Amino acid sequence: MKRAQRLGIAAIAAAAVVVLLTGCSIISDVLGGGSAVRDPENAEITEGGDLDVFTLKIGDCFNDTTSTTVSELPVVPCADPHDNEIYFEVAMPEGEFPGDDAVTAAADENCLAQFEAFAGIAYESSVLDYSYLTPTDGSWDNNGDRLIQCLIYDPSAQVQGTLKGAAR
Q1: What 3-state class would DSSP assign to 116?
Q2: Cα–Cα dist 154/83, whole Å
Q3: DSSP string of 2-31?
Q4: How many CA atoms lie within 13 A of 66 on its CB side?
Q5: pTM of the predicted model, to two decimals?
Q6: Edge-to-edge, what's the strand order for the sheet holding 84-91?
Q7: Residues 47/51/54/56 CA torsion (nearest 10 deg)
Q8: pLDDT tens digit string along 82-123?
Q9: Cα 22 from chain centroid?
Q10: Which of 90, 72, 94 is nearest to 151 (CA)?
């Protein structure tokens, strides 16, 4: 095969790859997914998408997932319907992973303690509930993850807007 023919075939192959990659991008745009977008000034989510859990912040809103261990979550602007809002964070102390029971106990203690300050009503009187994202043994060892993130949600339906001061 002559050099010109090989270059022509290589150019066609390269063009095919570009078309395939562009097609994947278009499919991703149509089907959803992709990276979320934050406002550069106030760091609020302005466009929904998947976001690495290690980049979540207080005030971020996201929808439920079926997995119990996640690396990304489907975040949305809080003005859009959503399942959860991060309302508080606390870091576990350095050292060896204390075990799931100790992490869960710390999450329950801290999230409950901050619930009323955020929701504007005592947890016991509220129709809202809380949950949390916690370090796992793997994320503790591999990523240095010590962060507990407290989530507030309405167990009866998705919400729009923040639940800060909702008093319900």
Answers
A1: helix
A2: 7
A3: -HHHHHHHHHHHHHHHHHHHHHHHHHHHHH
A4: 0
A5: 0.79
A6: 49-52, 72-76, 61-62, 84-91, 147-153, 129-133
A7: 30
A8: 999 999 999 999 999 999 999 999 999 999 999 999 999 999
A9: 26
A10: 90
